[in-house]
Amino acid sequence: MVSPAIALAFVPLLLTLIIRYRYYFALFYRAVLVRIWKDCVTGMSREERAYQYVLTHATPGDPDSILDAFDVWCSKMEFISNIGPKKGKILDRLLMEQSPLTVLELGAHCGYSTVRIARSLPLGARLYSLEMDQRNAAIAEKIIRLAGFDDDTVELIVNPSDEVIPRLRSDYGLERLDFVFMDHWKKSYCPDLQMLEGSGLLGKGSMILADNVLFPGAPKFLRHIRKSGLYEWKVHRATLEYSKGIRDGMAELVYQGIK
């Protein structure tokens, strides 16, 4: 039996830990506990609940309205790890500067970043968006079409990235990727980047933007780009989407090729 004196001695330590990691506790509550509870109460997935909110609060055919509705839901209702509005502005700016004609997205999830990318593309550009989860892909498809983008602008591919990347040239007729956005499983960032390097689809000036490289983090990916010598790169420091106090960042890579 622990004496009251010993128990009291641990109170300052406990309070210190709670204060230091309060943002992570808040994230755990919003991303895990609330999700489990609402899954049980509603009988729907978190992504389905987000779609229902967007459907009833956004204007069809208006990408900005759809993104705004998503942002409200993710900041006030439940947490979903979209790129979000703050880091999204970095993505918007890079797309406007690059004006890419062929874009690959790894990790559509429920379509937020897909819509964000598609609205910034020049006329005649095409976005190939990959999502391995069939339920999430079905929601992403609805969100993309609700935003007004057809198959000529956005093609949603429902398969794991490690199966699709080797077939982009043969099955989809791609010769070059101008822009790649990564926001899928962080453990897949490094092997998928290496597959892209080996595919011959990255040309000099091709840009890769990878989200969440600091939290949850993609250390193998960062080590690879440091050692490979294939890229000019930097990390855009930011905070985790729809959260406070959790440091994150996006890696911006510009492919230079073998020197």
Automatic annotation (TrEMBL):
GO terms under cellular component: basolateral plasma membrane; endoplasmic reticulum; Golgi apparatus
Gene Ontology BP terms? auditory behavior; catecholamine catabolic process; detection of mechanical stimulus involved in sensory perception; dopamine metabolic process; endocytosis; hair cell differentiation; inner ear receptor cell stereocilium organization; methylation
What compartments host this protein? Endoplasmic reticulum
Return the InterPro entries for the record. Answer: SAM-dependent_MTases_sf, SAM_O-MeTrfase
Q: In terms of one coarse class, where is the protein primarily found?
A: endoplasmic reticulum
Give the molecular function GO annotations: catechol O-methyltransferase activity
Say which enzyme class the record assigns. Answer: transferase
The alphabetized UniProt keywords are: Catecholamine metabolism, Endoplasmic reticulum, Hearing, Methyltransferase, Neurotransmitter degradation, S-adenosyl-L-methionine, Transferase
Supply the EC number(s).
2.1.1.6
- What catalytic activity does the UniProt entry give for this protein? a catechol + S-adenosyl-L-methionine = a guaiacol + S-adenosyl-L-homocysteine + H(+)
PROSITE patterns xref list: SAM_OMT_I (PS51682)
PANTHER family in the cross-refs: CATECHOL O-METHYLTRANSFERASE 1-RELATED, TRANSMEMBRANE O-METHYLTRANSFERASE
User: Would you identify the family this protein belongs to, as annotated?
Assistant: Belongs to the class I-like SAM-binding methyltransferase superfamily. Cation-dependent O-methyltransferase family.
Q: What is this protein called?
A: catechol O-methyltransferase
